[in-house]
Amino acid sequence: MTTMYEYTATCLFGLEGLLGEEIDVLGYKRTQNMDGRISFLGDASACARCNINLRYAERLYIKLGEFHAPTFDALFEGTKALPWENFIGKNDVFPVTGHAIKSALFSVPDCQKIIKKAISVRLGQKYGLTILPETGIKYRIEFFIFKDTASLMIDTSGTPLHKRGYRPESVAAPIRETLAAAMAKLARPREDVLLWDPFCGSGTIAIEAALQMRHIAPGIKRSFSGEAYPQFDKSLWQQAREEARSNIRMETSFRVNASDIEPECISIASAAAKRAGVADLIHFFEADALQIENPGCRGTIVTNPPYGERLMTLSEAEDLYRNMGKSFEKFPTWQIYVLTPHEKFTILYGRRADKIRKLYNGMIPCYYYQFFKPVQKREK
Q1: Residue 225 in contact with residue 138, Cβ under 8 Å?
Q2: What is the mean pLDDT of the chain?
Q3: 206: Cβ–Cβ under 8 A, 6 or more apart, which residues?
Q4: Which of 120, 213, 286, 304 is the most buried (most CB within 10 A)?
Q5: 37-73 burial, b if ≥16 CB within 10 A, otherwise e?
Q6: CA–CA distance, 203 with 274 (Å, rounded to integer)
């Protein structure tokens, strides 16, 4: 009989819809949707396939159980009742981390201690030990307590999934790969439509767009903590990587321009694109974003300009947004997508957005301003 697990994939706020669609495409049934996380059912192979293929997830967990935990006693007993021995061996390491939101139990350190103790008691009883050595495989336990309901999970990703492996170095204020992938996806990259990021920084948006169009799985070149778990045979990981490699499409007419005013950015971005296997699809070059010219083709601008926080002052960023509006008038038929936390960006930019979507850049609430209807002249 096939063993089924309930998995939980976490994501940045605002990416739940894209993540859910990915899970559906992989063939798994969703069981719960909530802000920043989606749970679904899958067999053992889902651990490998999802870690390797999910573009918008931050981590993939196996959900051990969920229960009402308004008190520390309830948290202890609920944790102790779960079958931890199905995963954690008598020598294995199991650190505990987590979050508590809108719950009576709000002290994370206290919750960590209670959960750690409850797991230790159960495993000690199962293995006949008073002290667990914790020298073996590392299973990171994650708890999430929301409105007094505790979810306890085991991490299978290890290093967060947004770290694809192609960007060992980056520039100041880099955008997370998962968010860049979402920005590219929402801009609907297409064959024979040039995509251009004029504030490319370390090249993440350009690279993520190219990875999507070449159908390269984001985790195909990295490893995961779940590969060390005996519950998931190594052949499952090999099969998942072979499946991912078979989906790669080398032939594509898709092209990307990635420009930045800083030479160091171009150097870093070019090296990252080579590591990602998409350098041939991206033209990197130095250019002032306010001086770029329309190449006379169909195109889309997708960009994450400075916010006035880590780069520039707020006043400088606002001046930049005004000048972007003037400069981008040279692209009247292009679709333009801009991510910024500024709530009055459209006023500064001088054009009403056709759609605005709220996304989070880490913990920074942002707005994805989308201009996809052609304009002939700047609105006053």
Answers
A1: yes
A2: 95
A3: 195, 197, 200, 256, 257, 258, 269, 273, 282, 284
A4: 304
A5: bbbbebebbbbbbbbbbbbbbbbbbbbbebbebeeee
A6: 11
Measured distance CA(254)–CA(29) in Å, rounded: 32
Burial of residue 135, with CB atoms counted within 10 A of its CB: 0-12 exposed, 13-18 middle, 19 or more buried: exposed
Q: Tokens for 180, please give them.
A: 């860049």
196: which 2 tokens? Answer: 């251009």
- DSSP reduced 3-state for 219: coil
- Banded pLDDT at 380 (limits 50, 70, 90): very low
Q: Which residues of 247-275 are buried (b: 16+ CB within 10 A; e: fewer)?
A: eeeeeeebbbbbbbeeeebbebbbbbbee
Residue 23 · residue 30 · CB < 8 Å: yes
From the number of C-beta atoms within 10 Å of its C-beta (0-12, 13-18, 19+), residue 149 rates as middle
Report CA dihedral (152, 155, 159, 160) to the nearest 10 degrees.
Answer: -60
Kind and range of the H or E run holding 237: helix 234-246
Angstrom distance (rounded) from CA 297 to CA 198 = 16
Q: Are strands 355-361 and 364-371 parallel, antiparallel or unpaired?
A: antiparallel
Quote the CA–CA distance of 179 and 269 in Å, as a whole number. Answer: 17
This prediction has a pTM of: 0.94
- Can you tell me the distance from the alpha carbon of 218 to that of 60, in angstroms, rounded to the nearest whole number? 14
The C-alpha atoms of residue 184 and residue 141 are separated, in whole angstroms, by 33
Paired tokens of 47: 């651990």
DSSP states along 14-26: T-HHHHHHHHHHT
Is 138 in contact with 92 (CB distance < 8 Å)? yes
- HEC string of 60-116? EEEEEEEEECCCHHHHHHHHHCCCHHHCCCCCCECCEEEEEECCCCCCHHHHHHHHH
From residue 314, how far is each of 60, 308, 311, 341 by CA, in Å? 36, 4, 9, 11
Question: Do residues 257 and 196 make contact, with C-beta atoms less than 8 angstroms apart?
Answer: yes
Among 116-120, 165-169, 251-255, 287-291, the minimum mean pLDDT is found in 165-169
What H or E segment, with its residue span, contains residue 366?
strand 364-371
- Residue 172 scores a pLDDT above 90: no
